[in-house]
Amino acid sequence: MTVFPTDKFKELRTPFYYYDMNLLNETLSIVKKESRKHDFHVHYAIKANANDRILEKIRENGFGVDCVSGYEIQKALDVGFSADGIVFAGVGKADWEIELGLKNDIYCFNVESLPELEIINDHAHKMGKKARVAFRINPNVHANTHHYITTGLDENKFGISMMDLENVLDKMVDMKNVQFEGMHFHIGSQITDLDNFKDLCLRVNELQEWFISKHLFPKVINVGGGFGIDYDNPDDNPIPDFAPYFKVFKDFLTVKPGQEVHFELGRSVVAQSGNVISRVLYVKEGVKTKFAILDAGMTDLIRPALYQAGHKVENISNPEGAKTRYDVVGPICESSDSFGKALDLPEMQRGNLVALRSAGAYGEVMVSRYNLRENPPAYYSDSL
Ligand SMILES: *Cc1c(COP(=O)(O)O)cnc(C)c1O
What we know:
The chain is an alpha/beta fold. It has helices spanning 6-9, 21-36, 52-60, 70-78, 95-103, 114-126, 162-172, 194-213, 242-252, 267-270, 303-307, and strands spanning 16-19, 41-45, 64-67, 86-88, 108-111, 131-138, 160-161, 178-184, 220-222, 260-265, 274-285, 290-294, 313-315, 323-329, 338-346, 353-356, 378-380. The radius of gyration is 22 Å and the shape is elongated. The structure holds pyridoxal-5'-phosphate. GO terms for molecular function: diaminopimelate decarboxylase activity. Pfam families: Orn_Arg_deC_N, Orn_DAP_Arg_deC.
């Protein structure tokens, strides 16, 4: 459980990101332990948080990296991840990004369309290389999550549809500079019902038989990420339950001799370790409600505005105060710049420190300079 050093925070200008490095370390060691139990390989999805200190810890734990841009590949290399643990997904890989991946001999391109496969083959040919590729397949499996973070349905832009797969394989026969590694999936994010992953496993089992019937052996089954966290109760559930999560794949995925199972976890690894710390600027009486106006806004944590996501709001200066109802908002000139309506919180006063919890994933990485705001600094529990 994260304990905030409120006295130290008093000296600091807000808003800022605060990372609980003990919690991060504990989370990483559990991910490592539970995945290794089944010989699973974990690639950290760097788009969730690309802060150098965080990446350093993740690298020390021996994970690979899942990238969705050339910039992320470069970042992973710069902080010392080895290229042979890098996988690269994304529906719109630009030519320079493909070249960068090839030049550095990254482990695998997770290919999302036939035209992309053709371009990878062309570049690899020009560079005298052979690109390892896995097909990102859209399995049409529900993730029961917010529709903006569902990725594995027919209507989503991601992956190769099952209808198109046969055509892709036919065309691949003539491509001399790509080598088939396996299958890749990622059905969505913030998935808490493990049945969704079970459904994915069953679909993968069918699909791999289909590949084998086409005389292609998927050496790697990459099931992506998407494991959810408890945004409502970060202190009760600071570390997601990784044991049952991995066990679903152990129990329901048919793994053949010589096959590897890969994961791409982002949110579940880093979300609970991060927080946005802000101050109450004003408490304003509205017509129907009281507004607590913070100095942190959607520029610092965009998930509520972007996905209607909820982050627990905690008054850490006055935790025992009498409960009062507030709409908690930021200072940005957008009505969507809100962290929650009708929240019952300990009484808020100007200057109180407020933590926006579970902000370690898709928080700092999505910072923006809208309203020409400065990017907030980050502080770490082990070096404050
Ligand atoms: C975003 C993403 C992930 C990580 O998702 P989380 O929900 O953060 O675990 C994994 N794989 C791919 C391809 C992604 O785009």
